[in-house]
Each structure stands twice: as C-alpha cells, then as structure tokens.
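re: ur question from the group chat, yeah i did fold both. here u go
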Amino acid sequence: MNAQIERLEFSKRLQQALHNAEQSPNSPTQLAREFNVRFAGQPVTVHAARKWLQGESIPTQEKLRALAEWLDVPTDWLRFGSIDANLSKTQSSTLSSLDTKAIATLQQLDEHHKMLAHEFIRMLSRISKKK
C-alpha cells in the first residue's frame, strides 16, 4: 500500500474511533487538547492533530499507543486496520473460539455494518460496566 493511501486509511480509522468514543472527528483543536491531557510525552500541536485527521501524517508508535488506549481500540487496528492478522500470540491465546469466530464474521461485513456492530458492542460494554 502506498504511503498516501496508508495515511488516509489511518485517518478514517482515527475518525471512526473518535466518533465511537463520542469525540468530535472533525476538530483538531479538541483532538490535540484531549490527547495532550492523557499523554505524558511531548504534547501535540493542533497542526499535528489536523494532519492526523486529514491523512497527511501518522503519529509515532508511542502516540499511536496513547491514542488507542484513550479511544479503547487495538493499537494495531488503529495503525494498520487489521484486528486478527496483527494479534500477538499472547493476545490470540486469550481469545476463545467464539471470540475468533466473532472477529472473522465482523471482518466479512461491509464498513457500514462493521460500524453498527462496533456501536452495539460498545453499548453492551457500557451497560455491563454499570452493573
């Protein structure tokens, strides 16, 4: 995949993760502010956040990990877009066969239905945490 497409695909995943986390996917100012509150390293500028959202750059691995943790998504998914292809052996050994089947099924869906499934799972997770 060429670098420009890779950056644009990252941008789409970042915007989707922001939306799913009920953050604005269109505000570099809000992204920079919320990210910097959670990140112990060198803060990012609004300009850098805009470049992430516009698909002009991809953050460093350290910043990717912080973004993924904040947005509650796998770091590999945020960076590369794949869930199961990039699971470490430790991660995959903790998945049940039902989890693996669910991930495989999810990956077969079109983007719209994937987003609906993610929203549904997030809703169930919130309900579960409140109990």
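okk and heres the other one u asked abt
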Amino acid sequence: MQRTDIFVIGAGPAGLTTAYTLAKAGRSVTIIEKDATYVGGISRTVNYKGFLFDIGGHRFFSKSKEVVALWDEILPDDFIERPRLSRIFYRGKFYSYPLKAFEALRNLGLMQSAACMASFAFAKVSPVRNPKTFHEWVRNQFGERLFSIFFKTYTEKVWGMGCDEISADWAAQRIKGLSLGAAIVDGLRRSLGRRKSAATADGPKTLIESFRYPRRGPGMMWEAAARKIIAMGGHIVMGRTLEHLTFDEVRRQWTIVVACADGSRETYLANEVVSSAPIRELMSALKPAPLSLLHARELKYRDFLTVVLIGRCERDLPDNWIYIHDETVKVGRVQNFRSWSPDMIPDDVSTCLGLEYFCFEGDGLWAADDADLIALAKAEIGKIGLMRPDDVYDACVVRQAKAYPVYDEDYADNVAVIRRELRLRFPSLHLVGRNGMHKYNNQDHAMMTGMLTAANILAGETLYDVWQVNEDAEYSEAGFSGAEHALQSERLVPRRADAARAA
C-alpha cells in the first residue's frame, strides 16, 4: 500500500497541469495513466517509424496569459510559430476556412451565394426562439442554407447523430463569438490580403491565422511536464487502470485500487483525488455505488480513429487540416503533419496525412481490420484528390476511445445530478478536463481547470468554482483569466467553501 497526498487519475493536460502545480508547491502527488507508453492523453504525439503525428491536432493558442506562461515554463525552447491554413472540401471544391469572401462567391456561384444571403436574412427576421438543438442555433446564426452547406454533413460525421439531436450548448461553446457578419468582414479582409496575427487577435479563436506549436508535436509539452513532475518528487505510473475507490468518512481518506497491465493490483491511500477520467468510468469505480450512477451511465462519448498514410506526393499541400463536407466519403477530416511542423517528418520528401474517421467504440469502423481501414483511406484520399493511392508506401492506424463527450439533450441534466452528489458527499474528489467534466473543451481550458483545482487544494477550501471556466480558458464569474486570479488571489474576491456549498 502506497501513500500520497494527492492522487491524480489521468496524465492528460488537465491531470498533468494539476500535478505540476501541486508538485511545484511541494505537495506529494501520484498520477496513474492507462496508456503504457504515452502521457498527454488525446494531446499525445505518436511516433511511427520516426513519423510523428497528433491525435486530433492541437494548436497552442490561448487568451489566457497564465496558460501561455505555463507553456513557456514547461517547454521554454521548442515552440515554433506556424501559419494556420484550414480548408473545407465541398462538392469537389476547396474553400478556405475561415472563409474568403470572393473565393466562396466564386466557388458557390452567384445564385447559390444570393440564396445563402437570403436564407440568412430570413433567419434574422424569423429566428427560432430559445434554440435547443445544434441545427436551430446554427440556423439562427447563419441561415438554413449555409447550415446545410458548411455545418450539417461534417457535424453529423463527427457525432454520429442528426443535428436535431445535438444540444445547442455544443454550438454555443464551439462557435461562440462567430457570426455571419464577423465571417464576412473577416473574409473580405482575407480576400484583400490583410492579415491579423494570433498574438494580437482578440476575436473568436476560429478566426486566428497563426499559432504556436512544439516543433515535435504537443506530446513534447506533456513529456516535458511529466519529467519535471518526477524531478520535483512526484510519481507517474503508466499502464494503470482505475478499478475502484472508496472514501473513509471518519479518517477523511481515500483508498484507490488500480489494475496493472500484468493483471496485478496496487493500492494507494490519498487525502485528495483529482480525476480527468470519463465521468462514466469514475462513477462506476466509486464504492459503494453512488446514487447518481444511473445518470453517469447515460453519458455518451464519441470515439475516432486516425489512418495515417505515408507516401511521396507530387502535390504541394500547405493545409494543417481539411474538413471533408462530402457525403460520398466516410472520412471527416484530413491532417497534413508536415504543415504542423517539418520536424514531424524524418525526411524531406515524404508526405504524412492523417485521415480521421469518427465512430463509436465497437461499431463497424472501430472493429474493422487495420488493413481494411488502410484500403478505405487510400481509396478516399484518391477520390478527394489529395494523394494518389499508388503514392502511399506505408500506413498505420491509431484508435482513440472517448475522444469527445457527447452533448445530447439529456447530458446537462445528468451532469448536474452527478455534480450535486459529488459536492455534497465527496468534497475532496475533484473533476478536471474534457472527459473529467464532460465538457468539449480545448487544451488550454483543460489546463485552466487543473490550475484552479490545484489552487483550491493548496488553499484547503473551494476558492474557485472550476465549472465557471469557459471555453476561452477564462474565469467567467469575474470576466478575467482564471489562472491569473488563482495565482494572484488578492485581485479576486474568492468563492469561499460556504458559498460553494450553497451554490
């Protein structure tokens, strides 16, 4: 049996940020990670024969100065500035994303463009009141015709459900601040060649034109964080799966049992537990079973897999990634890893593309043989026209379970019930990160939840409601950067424990 002050479940951005902040403050920290090889979670970088690639692609851009400062502290010498270039593939044509006005007009044609503007005008005159679904929210913002062209197909590929089944919360979070008006103004500026750097951008993240990136992928950041945590006395154990955890109310102590890759068990004692594991898995591991377990079992996740094609392509591909709005192929997005960083490719001639297929764990795509998936990807990359199938000389498949928490119509109510029980019964159990909070957030948002949670643990009380961190990694109760106030708490009136219990 091993003792630790704080036990962290999951070595992704949220878990590692929490542990790094606590270890830096001199606290005893132990982290378990299910993966036997990689830290970083979905932000890891996979190495296949010297070719490096992301699981999903991660731009390093944040409105939080404190998150940026932490990136620089952990990885001071290995960031490069990269131009952002994303495009949409729709009906055989490529559209810059964000849109360039004149290019979009040329590709869509005058009649289609006029119909889009008329549809937008109608939506503004006759909006859906209190939109509840993704379809209704986007229709209000952009009009029905633009929704059907630039949102419907890709979104339904990602989530595996109709846009009328997806909560408007997801659209409000992921497309917040972007409107057709902003897109047109930005598109005109882009068409005229007037650029704005990421360093000064104060608009939606969707419109940034450059970003920072570790030269050998995002995993480089989290591998450095892991090394520094260990150097500060923390412990990271790989290939461990949470089996069950119990709380002794008399001793105010947690007992955590984990399963090792070889089938053995390890037991830990801890005063605090921080979990970035999917809520459904965490609640199933709590013993005795919590009252809200049935609500946890209702939470859903979307999985995906990446088919990596390596070849020698005669075509110049400047894109970071391309969104595939084409119903005739299954692939949802294509990443070009050399465009993320030349250091991701071990030679000067190869092209390495990642074709992302969204699926549910156990369905036909997920369960397909790697050879069949590679054949599918080669055929589809040829159909899109990014690379000839005969140019591919190597390939591999990487599967990522529970990549995205699903925002269906019941998710918010289920999470609310779970939060209420945990707050009342287990105040020393802290939820952080994307899956830990069932929030489809970005890397910087996940880090912010870890920083604020560490601040609460160090203070010995709930200074900050981590659930108020928004998708821009800001602490929305105060309207300022959450990490800034976590580190300089005299500038913010704290949320005390009694206020947290009353909330």
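fwiw on the second one: Confidence is low (pLDDT under 50) at residues 196-203, 476-503. The two ends are 37 Å apart (CA to CA). idk if thats what u expected
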